[in-house]
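PROTEIN DESIGN WORKSHEET
SECTION A - STRUCTURE
LENGTH: 461
TOKENS:
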């Protein structure tokens, strides 16, 4: 006899619970008005299911909480740092590790140390903070995603890959000297949480080595990427997520990481690399900004939680559950006739709001409009990944459209259950049925950089 269950279950049981914000429609309407229709301005306690981000929002394990109790809070050389450093070295193989309080400070330290105003930094797709940190140095952030990555509905296994031919063309055209580093985001958050194949990492690395350009990985979701490689790329089915991860990093010269994602903790990050000169530049930058090189803005107990998290995240049962939960939500939304980026990525379902709300033009922000509406009807918080977030400009300074108008439903790790996902899918289906109720938006306030965080809007009636 063999029982094979059709029901996908969470591979954990719940030891500690937290109530979620149950509100009335009138309360949500008032809260949304107060927030200038921007879900970033809402109070979290007014949110029922918070899919704003998968960053720092997950549930820690009992093992992580207990590790925190033995955190060593020494200013320099703490035992907790060496544990954290050891786990990062095991995964990445890099020679040097600087802890940081989150990903963007690792990016800031690296880019401020190595970029010049005429530099160009190619990537598959820069995420907003990475782009902002490149541009803050006066340099240019270039996205070289493969063509299939730009077609939301196209089913392909590795839509996060970089276009290697375009990378080589760029290097030949502008010269190696203008490109201090090539970045690769795994998985590709800005492009739908899509994975990058091992073959692509290898090829990009070969081009970088040919021209003597360092290659860095933006490693926020490295474990999810590794699991996609295991599932989808020939030759990896029998390898463990750790082995796959080690091979991924073996092609690179360094990494920045927001450990608030696949570190399975609520805060933390790192900058890691092999280069003896660059690490010196980065250490010197780091001390006045983040703190001494063995704590970098983190408490000893944070580094304990991260060291355990970076081990737990490579558990195959966890990773199967993680990717399956995201796919489950994606399938339910698709079944409701709502277009999403396909196949579903690792950490989020990306609704193609531009296609779903085709009556709202790109410059009336369909993704942001849908985010406000979903909050209003169901208390769900999501995040636009489109024209507002990317803030792209034409050469004349006017706003340019993002490649796609997406709405991201990011799933915090180990936090919500299957019934929460069913509720979200029901609300999205309702929005699709009532889409003519959803209008475009205009800004009443927009900051010059990273405007999505603080913007305010009004409905265009
Ligand atoms: N790189 C990528 C690919 C990211 O997704 C993020 C953060 C960062 C860098 C910056 O890390 O927040 O720790 O400073 N992404 C979050 C998100 C905020 O919601 O996707 P951070």
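SECTION B - SEQUENCE
RESIDUE ASSIGNMENT:
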């Amino acid at each position: 006899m063999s029982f094979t269950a059709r029901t996908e279950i969470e591979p954990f049981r719940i030891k500690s619970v937290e109530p979620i914000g149950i509100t009335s429609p009138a309360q949500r309407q008032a809260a949304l008005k107060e927030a200038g229709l921007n879900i970033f301005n809402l109070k979290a306690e007014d949110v029922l299911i918070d899919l704003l981000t998968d960053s720092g929002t997950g549930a820690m394990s009992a093992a992580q909480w207990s590790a925190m109790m033995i955190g060593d809070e020494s200013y320099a050389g703490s035992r907790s740092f060496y544990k954290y450093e050891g786990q990062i070295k095991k995964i990445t193989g890099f020679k040097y590790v600087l802890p940081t309080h989150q990903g963007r400070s690792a990016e800031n330290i690296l880019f401020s140390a190595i970029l010049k105003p005429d530099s160009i930094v190619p990537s598959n797709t820069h995420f907003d903070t990475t782009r902002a940190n490149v541009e803050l140095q006066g340099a240019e952030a270039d996205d070289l995603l493969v063509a299939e990555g730009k077609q939301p509905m196209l089913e392909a296994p590795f839509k996060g890959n970089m276009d290697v031919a375009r990378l080589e063309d760029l290097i030949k055209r502008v010269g190696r000297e203008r490109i201090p580093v090539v970045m690769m985001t795994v998985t590709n958050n800005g492009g739908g949480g899509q994975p990058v194949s091992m073959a692509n990492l290898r090829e990009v690395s070969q081009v970088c080595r040919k021209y003597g350009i360092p290659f860095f990985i933006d490693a926020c979701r490295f474990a999810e990427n590794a699991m996609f490689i295991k599932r989808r790329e020939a030759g990896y089915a029998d390898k463990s997520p750790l082995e796959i991860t080690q091979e991924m990093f073996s092609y690179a010269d360094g990494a920045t990481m927001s450990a608030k994602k696949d570190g399975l903790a609520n805060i933390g990050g790192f900058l890691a690399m092999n280069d003896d000169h660059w690490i010196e530049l980065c250490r010197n930058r780091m001390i006045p900004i983040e703190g001494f090189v063995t704590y970098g803005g983190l408490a000893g107990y944070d580094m304990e939680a991260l060291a355990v998290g970076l081990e737990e995240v490579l558990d195959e049962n966890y990773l199967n559950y993680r990717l399956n939960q995201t796919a489950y939500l994606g399938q339910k939304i698709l079944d409701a006739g709502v277009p999403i980026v396909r196949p579903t990525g690792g950490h989020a379902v990306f609704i193609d709001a531009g296609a779903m709300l085709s009556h709202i033009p790109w410059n009336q922000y369909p993704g942001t409009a849908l985010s406000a509406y979903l909050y209003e009807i169901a208390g769900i918080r999501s995040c636009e990944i489109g024209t507002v977030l990317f803030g792209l400009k034409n050469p004349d300074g006017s706003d340019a459209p993002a490649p796609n108008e997406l709405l991201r439903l990011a799933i915090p790790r180990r936090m919500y259950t299957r019934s929460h996902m069913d509720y979200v899918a029901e609300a999205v289906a309702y929005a699709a049925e009532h889409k003519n109720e959803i209008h475009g938006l205009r800004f009443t306030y927009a900051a010059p950089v990273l405007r999505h965080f603080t913007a305010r809007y009004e409905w265009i009636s």
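SECTION C - NOTES
The chain has a mean pLDDT of 96.
The domain at 25-47+316-456 is CATH 3.90.1150.10 (Aspartate Aminotransferase, domain 1).
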